[in-house]
Specification:
By secondary structure, the protein is α+β, with helices and mostly antiparallel strands. The protein has three helices and eight strands. The protein is elongated.
């Protein structure tokens, strides 16, 4: 659970709070899937604090909305925030962890890995021999 209860709000509640607290910035609101995005000029310090209080987060990677606007502030609106590509303790999020907590990398290439169908054919051929 998040420390900020406003991060748990759904999209309608987020928009209502935005209209109430930042009415002069409403033109910058946009939606993409279940997320609410805000695009606009760099917010003043007080506006930035209000965005954070409303449950918005800043992303350094800009997101292009369906209408072509570019936004850096988002609210998950009850959805899940996926954080990709972050390394913790030298292990990327794409590496699988073993129960011992060490990264386990496959040393076989895709060409060396037998497909399920091939393995099944080998099993049948061995059974017939």
């Amino acid at each position: 659970m998040s420390k900020n209860p406003n991060k748990e709000l759904d999209a309608d509640q987020v928009v209502a709070l935005f209209h109430k607290n930042l009415p002069h910035l409403v033109d910058g609101l946009g939606a993409d899937r279940s997320w609410i995005w805000w695009s606009g000029p760099k917010p003043e310090e007080a506006e930035r604090k209000l965005l954070l209080e409303l449950g918005f987060s800043f992303t350094p990677r800009p997101h292009t909305l369906p209408d072509g606007r570019v936004a850096n502030w988002f609210h998950a609106a009850g959805g899940v925030v996926i954080r990709r590509g972050r390394k913790r303790d030298g292990v990327s999020s794409r590496q699988r962890l073993t129960p011992a907590g060490k990264a386990e990398k496959s040393t076989r290439t895709a060409a060396e890995k037998p497909s399920d169908a091939f393995a099944e054919l080998q099993r049948i051929a061995n059974a017939l021999s």
